Amino acid sequence: MTYLVLAAIAAGFALIPLPLFPSWVIVAYMVVEYDLRLWLAIVVGALGTTVGRVGLVAISRVAGERMLGRWSRGNLEYLHGKLESAAGNLGVGVLLASSPPPAGVLFIVAGLVRVQLWLVAVSVFVGRIIGYAISVGGASLAAAALADQLRGAFGPWAAVIAIIIVVGVLLLFLRLDYRTLFEEHRLRWNFRRRRDDDMPGGA
Q: Per residue in 153-166, pLDDT tens?
């Protein structure tokens, strides 16, 4: 039952796109607090995180198709094509496995550009197995004290700041003109509001 709780917590934590404390802290804390088997806890935590991240990508994909305007969808389709031709599945998989911060925004972006769910699942699981093995294995003894300190560090203002960061990064990502970036090698953001872009599905 404790392992199921760990999986559920890891999945819920991964489903939240806000930049919170590292997820390995949860696994390490559960290992220490409930005397769990280290490697089994790592695998269960990685599975839970995988489920949460795949869920976040799937939700972002559906929301993007319904809420983005014509220009934004075309812009992201262009980026998707460039990613497939330049990096391929291996490059995208390595990026998702490493999950550089802000990781939550990265997986929202993965959903918006329609990265395949199987690739997300494999990348996250392999990346978390490696990451948890290194982080949890080396920090389990100090995890309880670390978790207490981190809980106290995240109050209402921290949540507000995290939301602002996520929204700001997403706005910059969605409005960056990728055709100009790849073809003219310069940065250009499109913040102009157009009727056909603001309306879901384009008019």
A: 555 555 566 677 77
pLDDT at 45: 94
> Which residues lie closer than 8 Å to 66 by C-beta, 6 or more apart?
200, 201
Cα separation, 32 vs 118, in Å, equals: 32
**Is the distance from CB of 67 to CB of 200 less than 8 angstroms?**
yes
Report the predicted TM-score, pTM, of the whole model to 2 decimal places.
Answer: 0.76
pLDDT of res. 128: 93
Cβ-proximal residues to 49 (8 Å cutoff; 6+ apart), any chain? 10, 11, 13, 14, 23, 124, 125, 128
Longest Cα–Cα distance in the chain? 58
3-state SS string over the chain?
CHHHHHHHHHHHHHHCCCCCCCCHHHHHHHHHHHCCCHHHHHHHHHHHHHHHHHHHHHHHHHHHHHHCCHHHHHHHHHHHHHHHHHCHHHHHHHHHHHCCCCHHHHHHHHHHCCCCHHHHHHHHHHHHHHHHHHHHHHHHHHHHHHHHHHHHHCCHHHHHHHHHHHHHHHHHHHHECHHHHHHHCCCCECCCCCHHHHCCCCC
Q: In 10 A of CB 58, how many CB atoms?
A: 13
Q: Give the number of other Cβ atoms within 10 Å of residue 62's Cβ.
A: 11
Name the residue among 98, 82, 93 with its Cα closest to residue 176: 82
Residue pair 14/56 in contact (Cβ under 8 Å)? The answer is yes
